[in-house]
Amino acid sequence: IPVYTVYDGEATSDLRHRLPKATIVRYQGDSIMHQKLLIIDNQKIWIGSANMTKSSLNIHSNLVLEIDNKSLAEALTKRVKSMDESGNHSPLPHLKTTAGEQDLEFWVLPDDPQAVAKIIDLLRLAQKTIKVAMFTWTRADFAEELIAAKNRGVHVEVVIDRYSGNGASAKIVRLLLKNGVSVRLSVGSKLMHHKFAYIDDTLLISGSANWTLRAFTQNDDFFTILYPLTNRQKAKMDMIWNLVVKESEPVKK
User: How far apart are CA 158 and CA 179, in angstroms?
Assistant: First the structure.
């Protein structure tokens, strides 16, 4: 079975000796190859926040979606095979397809300049609830949208990884708290590595992209939008969110 792999050369040691028969591209561009993407038989796609490491799959908190869609798999495969070791690739604008009666959008970063506006639009359309679990968050524009949503009566909850919340994401934590948004930080030694927004219990934004400037302008990243969620998916997301909250604590002002 032919195997084609692209991996970030700074974050991962050389894979060539482990996969001697595979076609391997060691990405060494100026940005980070931050995608977490697996395509099987040009049909099944696994995408999400989990890296292919033991700790990521067995210890840290992550979310992965499996999508069975041949046309989407072929489009993503084509983009992956266009990537070279310097980080050059053929751009891919966002893709929209359906899965049963659901709409699915796939946004590749930094290829699509409308990605930021899309997320802002979705936050502005929220009517009841916004629940965000984010490993690293430095974008003030997304924070301002959550504050605006809270001010118009939307129930807003945020959980951030505690290491990030006390470091790179600290300014966002302070901004949200100052404006009355509920913020919690994860507890324990494992990473809260999620990158998702769960809106009105019916729409899910998730993927590999943290809410940072680099994720949307430099890194090789992506996010998906899935809606409306099925009852089974809602139950799963409710379970995940309850676990995220259980494994966190309110930020002390």
Answer: 13
How far out from the chain centre does Cα 40 lie? 20
Nearest to 195 by CA among 170, 212, 175, 177: 212
Cα–Cα distance between 29 and 84 in angstroms, integer?
9
Strands 129-134 and 155-160 come out as parallel
Per the CB < 8 A criterion, the answer to whether 209 and 196 are in contact is no
pTM above 0.85, yes or no: yes
195 labelled catalytic: yes
Q: Is the link from the previous residue into 110 a cis peptide, with omega within 30 of 0?
A: yes
Please identify which of the residues 112, 193, 220, 221 carries the catalytic annotation: 193
* Model confidence pLDDT, tens digit, residues 77-114: 999 999 999 989 999 989 999 887 899 999 999 999 99
Low-confidence stretches of the chain (pLDDT < 70) are 253
- Checking DSSP bridges between strand 248-250 and strand 182-186, what pairing results, if any? antiparallel
Side chain identity at 152, as an amino acid letter? R
β-partners of residue 66 are 46
**Residue 100: per-residue pLDDT:** 79
194 as an active site residue: the answer is no
Q: Are 142 and 119 in contact (CB under 8 A)?
A: yes
Whether 72 and 92 have beta carbons less than 8 Å apart is answered as: no
Task: Single out the catalytic residue among 111, 118, 200, 234.
Answer: 200
Decide if 84 is catalytic.
Answer: no
Beta strands in 168-253, from DSSP E residues, in sequence order: 182-186, 195-199, 203-207, 221-227, 248-250
Q: What is the pLDDT of residue 253?
A: 66
CA 239 to chain centre: 18
Whole-number pLDDT of residue 70: 94
192 vs 185: CA distance, rounded Å = 9
